[in-house]
Amino acid sequence: MAGFRSLARQVRDPRCDLALRRYSLRKCLERFAPYGHRATWDHLCSRAGFDPEDRSPDPARLVAALEELEEARSVWLAYEVEFAERRRKEKHDGLRRPGSVDDWHRLTWGGFGVAWCDDPRVHPDGPLAEVLRRLISALEREPGSVCPVCDGERLVWMYDLDHEPSAGPVCTDCGILVPRPVLTPDALAYARRGRLLMSA
Prior knowledge:
Blueprint: H1 4-12, H2 18-28, H3 37-48, H4 59-92, H5 100-107, H6 128-139, E1 155-158, E2 168-171, H7 185-199
Antiparallel strand pairs: 1-2
Helix pairs in contact: 1-2, 2-4, 3-4, 4-6
Protein name: TFIIB-type zinc ribbon-containing protein
Organism: Streptomyces rochei (Streptomyces parvullus)
């Protein structure tokens, strides 16, 4: 099975058939897809300027989509290195019990679904790398009451998400499943009440 880097080389290789280059970009999302596979694909296509169903997009647009994905992957991999170093130090210092950020991080190791978007057409507009930087910053500071990606205040508790955890606070502005560790208990309670109000 090809890794992310070898797939990226195929996307860039002008000697490869265009269908293979598009396919290789899609396969990259099996290795790294911050919004989930379908939502990340929709995001990359819209940012690079080609239709998700286009079977023969402009090669330059494919490479632009790949470059955005690679930059975001670099941001996430750097975070994972720092995370692993921190955990090693904590274990060395006798802190064996992981915290809520650690619990969340285990579900997103490798970057799949870091900022899960259950609806593949609703996702943040900005560059993936910037979205991940904002999310990482939120994970490294005290919890807040708004979406760490777009500062949206409309968080609603959703159930039956196609992800783990399968329920949680979703930002109705940018569509991400907001990691619980970045929100205060009051913000989480408010999101749950929002769900009850909507279903009433």
